[in-house]
Amino acid sequence: MKSVYWLTVAIAVVFALVIGTSQSAFAQANDIDDGPLKENELLKDPDPNGDNLRESHAGNKNWITKWYGPEGNYENNGGFQASSRRDLIEEGTNGKLTEPKLSTSPGLNLTKTVDMEWDAANGGTRKWTVFELNPADGNNMNRGGPVDNIDTYGLIVIHSPLARKAVMSPAHDDHAQIWINGEKWYNNSRWTGAAQTILHNVEVDLKKGANVVLYRVGESGGSAYINLHFDDETHNKSKIYPDKSKDQKSFFDEVSGILDVEPVGKLTTTWADIKRNR
């Protein structure tokens, strides 16, 4: 009986070691804590950025499901390698908005009166609305339109009770770019491997009050997903919008009392900066 007992203990120990080793081998996402991106880094991938960094967050309860943005995708983008170097927001608004400006309260407010006017071949006129995505769906970018050669834009507003550091974890296929409060914090042309798998945890600055997050993903072919979550404390202590809203009007009803009213200040991340550093 004693030998059976010790054999059981040994098996349990070995099993625990195997499970622990396999989990640690998969949980290797790289931490990025030196943002926002500098002018010469705006289109550079993180380093390191290999497949060995992939980390499943499938069990995380914080994946964002509601977004505010154009009612449809930018289509026929020529592949994300080409489209990622262009500011499609600037192109679609004739310069009234840019990607960095859109990630600010004043820029967000402009979407009440400024629609996206892309060429007909690229989706045509897109009004702004609230849409919902399933984080477990590896093709959640498609949104009823073409499945390849598309770009998706999504916005959220994080209302933080105080200024603090937060950690965001993006999952994307393919090229992802993220701006917060007019600054670019993330650029990565490498797909993450699955709809709820990440390559990087990114430390970002949240100010007290409204923080506007703009998330863009450009896709060429195959799976197409855009997903994001933040650390537990951000989700537990902040309010993230859209919440209960389902369209543009109800979205602005939710955020009208929290958005900044001051004019846009100096944006360190501008399209001109990108052009100078191409």
Describe this structure in words.
This protein has 278 residues and is an alpha+beta fold. The chain has one domain (32-276). Helices cover 23% and strands 30% of the residues. It has eight helices and 16 strands. Strands 4, 8, 10, 11, 14 and 16 form a six-stranded antiparallel sheet that branches. The relative contact order is 0.21. Residues 1-5, 7-26 and 264-278 have low confidence and may be disordered.
Poorly predicted ranges:
1-5, 7-26, 264-278
Order of helices and strands: HEEEEHHHHEEEEEEEEEEEHEHH
Number of spatially distinct domains = 1
Question: So what's the overall shape?
Answer: globular
How many β-strands, per DSSP?
A: 16
Number of helices: 8
Whole-angstrom Rg: 20 Å
Q: What percentage of amino acids are in beta strands?
A: 25-35%
In round numbers, the mean pLDDT is 89
The percent of residues in helical segments reads 10-25%
Structural class: alpha+beta
Summarize, please:
This protein is an alpha+beta fold. It has helices spanning 2-26, 80-83, 88-92, 99-102, 105-110, 232-237, 248-255, 271-276; strands at 30-32, 55-56, 66-70, 74-75, 116-117, 125-126, 128-132, 150-160, 164-173, 175-180, 183-188, 197-198, 200-206, 209-219, 225-230, 239-241.
Task: Throw out a few tags for this protein.
single chain; 278 residues; alpha+beta; six-stranded antiparallel beta sheet; four-stranded mixed beta sheet; 8 helices; 16 strands; globular; disordered N terminus; disordered C terminus
